[in-house]
Amino acid sequence: MPLEMWTDVYENKGCQMKGQAFGGTTRRELQERYPQAILPESCTEQGWYMQPIETEAEAWERAQRVVDHLYAMSRDPEYMGKGIAIVTHGNFMDYLFGRIVGRAGMKDAPRFLFSNTCYSRLHFKEPVPVILYLDRNEHLAGLLSRYESTLPDSDSLA
Known about the structure:
A two-stranded antiparallel sheet has the order 1-2. It has 2 domains: 1-54, no CATH class; 55-157, no CATH class. It has helices spanning 27-33, 56-75, 90-100, 144-148, and strands spanning 16-17, 20-21, 119-123, 130-136. Helix 2 (56-75) crosses helix 3. The protein is of the alpha+beta class. Strand 3 (119-123) and strand 4 (130-136) form a beta hairpin. The protein starts with 15 loop residues before the first strand and ends in a 10-residue tail after the last helix. The chain contains 4 helices and 4 strands, in the order E-E-H-H-H-E-E-H.
């Protein structure tokens, strides 16, 4: 399956440095690094993120757009029976899985805390998606106890 860049899949608040939004990786840089990648027209020589720093409410809405896109792909004969991998960040994954399970609001229950470099698997099956597993990180064997000691406790997620 080809590598396709989705400009709606990124960490909450968008590309920023020292509190200022910036365009991110340019089209040329992405083409050099990933010559086979399918890049959207919105990815230009100024970068792919051409907007102000995103609010949490905007990220919550963006997560719904990604879920809608995934459902559309699951019904498309071109993608049926094929896997789709999404690489993103933990806070956006919380919003994404919150939308998938029908969470009412971005801060409502259930909340999801993901480890760095983890992977999850779900099956977009109508009418209800099936979550096969969440936050797998076996590839970090030996590093987990040190990493888990840095995770926030559930009280700090409010």
